[in-house]
Design a protein that fits this description.
Blueprint: E1 16-17, E2 64-65, H1 74-89, H2 133-136, E3 144-148, H3 154-162, E4 168-173, H4 176-189, E5 194-198, H5 201-211, E6 216-222, H6 247-256, E7 257-267, H7 270-281, E8 287-289, E9 292-293, E10 296-297, H8 315-322, E11 328-334
Parallel strand pairs: 3-4, 3-6, 4-5, 6-7
Antiparallel strand pairs: 1-2, 7-11, 8-11, 9-10
Helix pairs in contact: 1-8, 5-6
């Protein structure tokens, strides 16, 4: 599979959408039971991998195509393309059907970079109120997945819709407008296995997961640059304390994650990915790096997972790939 050249090359490839979705021709699976899961991290028995990708070959074989754009419009071109690809990636959610119900929730103007420690987020400096889990979820004893920095919520909504009976999903996000829209979508989709909360994970994660009646089996931290989906990378050393993955949060994950539970971290910023990797690698007695999915090696020589194991890409991942960026992923299993 070919990837688009970086913007710096001043030539943007024409992109064609194959429209393949999860068709059989583009599915790589190690079957274990008759039950099918859209993600190896959601399969309660073992890992298997489904690959979703764009056809970037530029051939003439069907699908939808974009025209090449002038160099001066490359940045806006990538943004426009990523918006359209995102709509296609999440088409089965039919979220556009709800824009007319509440037009203000269709497209939100949200600051991409925020400081969770600023006074404007004073409400988030105290633990969030613990919800009535039995009122939030149809079955509050199901295993729980927590997505730290859930952003727009589409990623978690897709998982909740496609795995309605196997797991509950909790999204934590510090941009309140995004949480309000995500909860609006949950209500309109009539999903009873997913909930979004306006909360600072560094402050609220411990109390929330400790109060949940069922087991915590999966934590995802999908940190990216110029993020729309998750918390900011905060490059300056003096701002590293703003990063979402701090030692107290890692300790809380280690304490509350069930044995055999999974942590999935991802970033298109190498520095941030290395920081997250080091924090889990420093606890080898608790977390084991997963480098094999099913019976196939899944990592490169440096231990980065080669393919997205979730069955769906985040919005930022789509945008980053169109820019030619690399995604750095690691998977850990709690062994102690």
């Amino acid at each position: 599979m070919k990837h688009p050249e970086p913007i710096a090359s001043r030539v943007m490839l024409g992109v064609r959408w194959s429209g393949c979705g999860l068709c059989a021709a583009h599915v790589l699976r190690w079957p274990t039971t008759a039950t099918s899961y859209p993600s190896p991290l959601l399969d309660p028995t073992t890992f298997h991998l489904r690959r979703r990708f764009l056809n970037l070959s530029g051939d003439s074989s069907g699908g939808r195509s974009w025209l090449r754009c002038p160099v001066t419009n490359e940045v806006s071109s990538v943004a426009a393309r990523s918006t359209e690809v995102i709509e296609m990636e999440y088409a089965d959610l039919n979220l556009k059907d709800f824009y007319g119900v509440n037009p203000q929730l269709g497209h939100l103007r949200i600051r991409q970079h925020v400081n969770p420690l600023s006074s404007s987020f004073s409400r988030l400096q105290a633990p969030a109120e613990i919800p009535d889990w039995k009122g939030v979820f149809r079955d509050a004893t199901l295993p729980l997945m927590v997505d730290i920095g859930s952003g727009s919520g589409r990623f978690l909504l897709w998982l909740a819709k496609n795995c309605p009976e196997t797991r509950n999903y909790l999204g934590l996000e510090i941009r309140q407008k995004l949480v309000q829209r995500s909860q609006f979508w949950v209500k309109e989709l009539r999903l009873k296995n997913i909930h979004f909360m306006f909360a600072n994970a560094m402050v609220s994660f411990e109390s929330l997961v400790a109060s949940y009646p069922g087991p915590l089996t999966l934590v995802s931290i999908l940190v990216v640059n110029l993020i729309l989906q998750c918390p900011d990378p905060h490059f300056k050393k003096k701002h590293h304390k703003r990063r979402v993955l701090q030692e107290p949060l890692v300790n809380s994950i280690a304490e509350n994650l069930s044995r055999g539970g999974t942590v999935f971290v991802q970033s298109d910023v190498l520095e941030v990915a290395l920081d997250m990797r080091n924090q889990f690698d420093d606890r080898p007695d608790i977390f084991s790096h997963v480098n094999v999915i099913g019976d196939k090696p899944s990592c490169d020589s440096q231990g980065w997972v080669l393919h997205n194991p979730m069955g769906i890409r985040t919005e930022r991942e789509i945008h980053a790939k169109l820019e030619g960026a690399r995604i750095y992923r690691r998977i850990y299993e709690k062994v102690k």
